[in-house]
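1st attempt posting a full record on here, be nice pls
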Amino acid sequence: MSNPDPPLQACTKTLGDSKITVKRDGRRATFDNADRATIKQIDLDCWIPSAVTVKADYIVSKPGVVDVIVELKGKEVAHAIEQIVTTLIRWKEAPPFSNKIGGLIVFTRCPMRAAELGDIKKRLLVKHGLWMEIDKDQKTEYRFETFTGKSA
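the predicted structure (as tokens):
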């Protein structure tokens, strides 16, 4: 949207690949970009110092469509949710690249039941307007449109 601050620009990559993958500690998330749109990838460790606050790992943005806050986690899904929400609040002040913001947590193990995860996703949607995906698979290729709450 408007011109982001210089530290944010320094931590942002512009990509046009058909598959956009972010990785951290053996976990990954891949986004389908078949139309080869310009995608912005923000490394949050670069942009927000760890001493300042908890934060997610990345924001992967299809500007004008959706910005997806990504946390690649081992098993602490509750902590990952805190990281996503804290990042969401900070990202809204940036200003973000898109009006719609989604969230993605990819984990290796989750001690929560599917029903608990479903309840968490509903609360985040109601309280923050955040479409959240929580996934163990790591083989899924995500579509940006999924995070807008639309299937198309």
